[in-house]
Amino acid sequence: MGGHGAWPYDEKPLLVFWETTKACKLKCKHCRAEAILEPLPGELSTEEGMRLIDQVAGFGKPSPIMVFTGGDPLMRRDIFRLLGYALERGVTAAIAPAVSPLLTGEVLDRLAGMGVAVSLSLDSPYPGVHDSIRGVEGTWKRTVAAVERLVSRGARVQVNTVVMRETVDGLADMVKLLKDLGVKVWEVFYYVPTGRGAEESDLSPGEWEDVTHFLYEASRHLIVRTTEGPFFRRVAVARRALEERGLDPDEVLRPGPLYGRLVSRLRELLGRGGAAKAQSMGTRDGKGIVFVSYNGTVYPSGFLPYPVGNVREKSLQEIYRGAELLVKLRRGEFKGRCGACEFRDICGGSRARAFAYTGDPLAEDPACAYRPGSYSWLEKNYY
After folding, report:
1. Which one of 77, 126, 287, 290 counts the least CB within 10 Å of its CB?
2. What is the pLDDT of residues 148-194, one digit of tens each?
3. For residues 26 and 136, what is the distance between their CA atoms, to the nearest angstrom?
4. Residues 6+ positions from 202 with CB-CB distance below 8 Å
């Protein structure tokens, strides 16, 4: 999904996430949706789902990408009908199924055959760590088998990994695993304590900075995107600019010991890699991203539980373009360091994390270690 620099973010989202259901057979300890075994009453019906797809198509060409998520979208009996309808309407469809017994070989082949992009969660290269997070033994093994099957069928596959206290030490080995599996796109979720997520799984600002510098190096081996980690773009801009001037970003920016450990492990496993494939699109919650919950309530993202409307009452176009919070998020009307930062537009901090810790979606992001203005000093002294 790179190369969307000219996307008209004020007019339409790049990504519409639809939480098709809360129902799911896994018991993930950090679950944003706090998923349950049975669907909740009030779920959008098939007809309402089709109307939502019509509204996404109504944003015009190129249409936003529509991600069918959950819970587990496979818990809906009409999921293939809805995916087929999206494709008929010219909407690019993606699905994020849970790796449960519902994700059979037949289902994987059907998704691959339809041309639907599939994202699967794999949080660690170590089976025990992944299974303990997902709450069901054997999930790691089934996920790896599902990825292999999709890759062999030529499907577009993305692997999602949550970075948290439990998974951070495996990140370098994760890159090696994804390379071995033939996965080209890695979506890295910066942990936000929401839903079932507990604050003790969060990292410190210094550790988040180290992870971010590491991910830039990881992007020499595969395409890296981040969710709730927009400072990845700031780090990418700074490291790239230093490299272009023949300088070593590690010497100038001096990332910490966690970065040192991860990057030396990465180089031990895979060498230095090629040019960095770090994306720097300026999307964030409410700017290019919008989330429709199981009952039609609209949020800036799935991690930011601040309602801005409901598709049963107003069209998604009206809500996206007109909701007061979404307008402020797109304008970058932030407080604290995020409001003063020269990277406010391409980064803007995680609005979900700001909300999780302060109750204010416009507050500064507590995970960011950056001091606004430091880049100008860098430019003066090094460029």
Report:
1. 77
2. 999 999 999 999 999 999 999 999 999 999 999 999 999 999 999 87
3. 6
4. 164, 165, 191, 193, 367
